[in-house]
Amino acid sequence: MRPERVRIFAVHERTNSIGRHLPTSGGLGKMLQNAEDLGCETVQVFISNPQGWAEPVLRPDAGEFVAGVRERGIFPTVAHAKYLINLASPKAELRERSVRALAAELSAAGEMGLDLVVVHSGSHGGDGERRGMDRLVEGLERARELAEASGRAAEPLVENSVGAGTQLCSTFDALGEVTRRAGVRACVDTAHAFVAGYDLAIPGGPRLVAAELQAALGDAVGLVHLNDAKNELGSHRDGHRKVGEGMIPAASWAELFAALPGVPVVMETPYEDPDADAEEVRLVKELAGGLRKAAAGR
After folding, report:
1. Distances (CA, A) of 82 to 3, 46, 233, 254
2. pTM of the predicted protein model
3. What gap in Å lies between CA 69 and CA 48, rounded to an integer?
4. Might you name a Gene Ontology BP term for this protein (predicted)?
């Protein structure tokens, strides 16, 4: 049963661009029309099979995509890299394959006119967080160098994990260290942060979490994956719910937005019908401060 709609009274102007991950199976033009219909101001897509190693191929409708993004004022545009990539792996062959796969995604995204590519922080495979972080930093640096040498490249963002098993960067401190050492920015997933132990559900919790995030990363937060959590605080189990339908109360998001002005937001929540998805985008805009976004430079 869908929860009762929460009424939000904004006390500040909205500065965050709001959007969601969208499928591209019908073509990039159809995806952009879907984004417009849903009210998206930013979008995230896959540009290759996230479960396979095949390199992304420049799509014939890439020109239509660039023109459509410009016409609609969508920014930033985001790609999510393959789930198979593990830059921190202790296995040299997998690590090398991951570096080249990420470089290919950065290059292809740049050629398509996409701005950002989100990549998971990966796993140290059992030989310790320190060694894993060293490999992750090296892998990010190498992938970016390879992509930039081949031409235009999108910007990589490394994402926090839920902290299951040997996963890296479930803490903001670890994520901040990686971003500083590798010279990249971060994507912060709210569901991942919650199940990793950052309590966004209690009154005042989002402000405290945002303060920890600011202390650890400063201005290196390039994107928020705004996902409600399916599982409990500290459970280290991934799972997304629509905003307001999981473990985090809707009112918490308003507190978080107030503490993270200007950071673009992409939802990776479950798809429903177009009306329900558009309503979720609308709700998040209200939670972020209002349906209309403040003009640039204000």
Report:
1. 34, 8, 27, 31
2. 0.94
3. 19
4. base-excision repair
